[in-house]
Design goal:
CATH topology of the largest domain: UDP-n-acetylglucosamine1-carboxyvinyl-transferase, Chain
Radius of gyration: 20 Å
Order of helices and strands: EHEHEEEHEHEEEEHEEEHHHEHEE
Largest sheet: 4 strands, mixed
Number of domains: 2
Number of helices: 9
Number of strands: 16
Shape: globular
Distance between the termini: 26 Å
CATH architecture of the largest domain: Alpha-beta prism
Length: about 350
């Protein structure tokens, strides 16, 4: 019996758990995770982390221990994921998009299609809004061979959650990633959403107008798409996602509505992040930077990122623990992240 690879999460959060479990399945290697979410004020598994663990285990018929709220040590011994249809209820407004993000790399080792319906928060703090996942993340990974779609049945905002999305994965062969230069600007896509309870205040429209007023007018961005949606949801809430299309890829920026925060300010916050990106030369946004590292590990390649964030550092350390060498070539304003020898499962 192969002894588990021992990993220490004392200086990391939930991303450490999600990435480690995915790598365990991809490499068919058992892991023992100590000090899970050790740098958080309430360490150990919360509802959304427990949902990820239990879902991963079910998908690959894994043996595991530590699957309980508050657990700080988890052992996970995976089998081979075979596809099928599954349903997951996080039970809170825990992020459905973070769970979907964790599952995406498994497309590269599937034997048959996989469908996972997740109930939880679709647009909540500390995670990508659903429209970022649908309109920024998925188009990028599809470009490099990952066959994935996401259907939305219901939106879920904090605190009740209750949103429902279905992630569908097809067996996929990842392709080498090369995103190094920012190409000529092509235009802007805008996705603004409000819960039905906020429709009489025109929140979605006001978010959109706030963003458009704040964007750098000198760039004269073409508005390629503008979507304003009113959606049923157990809790009131809103979100805005701006997407920049350029010659070599796309980048996304978002903001969430908050009690007491004017809708126009939500749009302005997303626009400010967009303006900062457009002043630089990186082809992807700072949040996509760490999300692409797993796919670099699977297929190899290079990505120029605007910053080496804590999330980037954490993923690099985990990948190197599994034998993947990640090189960082720092420039004056950006860093090129590259993987020359990918995991054997992506070869």
């Amino acid at each position: 019996m192969t002894p588990p690879r021992e990993l220490d999460g004392s200086s990391a959060g939930g991303q450490f758990l999600r990435t480690a479990l995915a790598l365990s399945i991809l490499e068919n290697e058992p892991v023992r995770l100590e000090n899970v979410r050790g740098d958080r004020s309430t360490p150990g598994l919360r509802n959304q982390h427990l949902a990820v663990l239990e879902t991963m285990a079910e998908l690959c018929d894994a043996n595991m221990s530590g699957a309980e709220l508050g657990a700080e040590t988890v052992e996970f011994d995976p089998g081979n994921p075979t596809g099928g249809e599954y349903a997951v209820d996080i039970g809170t407004a825990g992020s459905a998009t973070l769970l979907c993000n964790a599952l995406l790399p498994l497309a590269t080792v599937l034997e048959s299609p996989l469908s996972v319906t997740v109930t939880g928060g679709t647009d909540v703090a500390w995670s990508p809004p659903l429209d970022y996942f649908r309109y920024v993340k998925l188009p990028i990974v599809r470009r490099f061979g990952i066959e994935a779609t996401c259907e939305v049945d219901r939106r879920g905002f904090y605190p009740d959650g209750g949103g429902e999305v279905t992630l569908q994965l097809e067996p996929s062969r990842p392709e080498r990633i090369e995103i190094v230069e920012q190409g000529p600007l092509e235009g802007l896509r805008l996705y603004s959403i409000e819960s039905e309870s906020l429709a009489d205040r025109d929140v979605a429209e006001r978010q959109a107008e706030g963003a458009l007023e704040r964007l750098d007018r000198e760039l004269a961005l073409e508005l390629m798409e503008r979507s304003e949606i009113t959606a049923e949801s157990p809790s009131p809430g809103s979100a805005l996602v701006l997407r920049i299309d350029h010659g070599t890829g796309i980048a996304g920026f978002s903001a969430l509505g908050e009690r007491g925060k004017p809708a126009e300010r939500v749009g302005e916050d997303a626009a400010d992040a967009t303006n900062r990106f457009l002043e630089g030369t990186a082809p992807v946004d700072r949040h996509m930077a760490d999300q692409l590292l797993m796919f670099l590990a699977l297929a190899g390649g290079r990505v120029r990122v605007p910053a080496v964030t804590e999330h980037v550092e954490t993923r690099c350390e985990l990948l190197e623990a599994f034998g993947v060498r990640v090189d960082l070539e720092a420039g004056s304003e950006t860093t090129v992240v590259s993987v020359a020898s990918p995991l054997r499962s992506g070869e």
